[in-house]
Amino acid sequence: MKIMLDAGHSYNTVGKRSPDGMREYEFNRVVANYMKALLEEYEGVTVYFSHSDKKDVSLQERTDKANQLAVDCFVSIHANAYGSGWNEAQGIETYVYKTKPPEATKLAERVQKNLIVATGLRDRGVKSANFHVLRATKMTAILVECGFMTNQSELQLLRSDLYRKTCAEAIVKGIREHFQLKLKSPDQLQKQESLFHVRIGPFFEKKQAEELMTRLRGIGYEASVQEG
């Protein structure tokens, strides 16, 4: 099974940030990274990213990539906002395309339920919208709004690594339930751990290593720089 994770927007998308300056993409990309690690523990699952830490990937590029790879599921991760200033808008909501395709709606309902149970935030329900990533994708697609950046209490959560992990785990649980995914055996996990570590280098300048790390992360690899 092929799953594409879409961390909405980018570091430089205009307006997609909290009133005090947190970029939405900061939350979105971390949740996507946690989800990728969790999903790869299931049999037959391959995870792709539509986004990049290096550049702002257009909506069309994202959906074109998903369609070209013929992924089975597309999940767009977001933090919500109401206006540009602080307000009391709150809660979590999950979207499907406006025609409400049954398969996407069922997935959205499972994801929404797990997010509400895991976070305790207000349940804003499953809704429909004409978002590009839902309209232009040819597979089961949902878009999740994990709390409001314009609500000061929820912004504190969105900044928390624990909350980001909680959201990732809840979304993955919904995906697992919907597609009836099975965990890999301990032997498979051990084999995966030992076979897919690649060391690239050395580099004499740290900047060069970090630039390559950024490119690798942008195409979906878990990359890091080690000194010594």
UniProtKB/TrEMBL annotation:
GO molecular function, one term: N-acetylmuramoyl-L-alanine amidase activity
MurNAc-LAA domain segment(s): 63-176
Keywords of this entry: Hydrolase
Entries under CDD domains matching the protein: MurNAc-LAA (cd02696)
SMART domains named among the record's database cross-references: Ami_3
UniProt-listed Enzyme Commission number(s): 3.5.1.28
Primary enzyme class: hydrolase
Domain of life according to the entry: Bacteria
Protein name in the entry: N-acetylmuramoyl-L-alanine amidase
The organism's taxonomic lineage, starting at the top: Bacteria, Bacillati, Bacillota, Bacilli, Bacillales
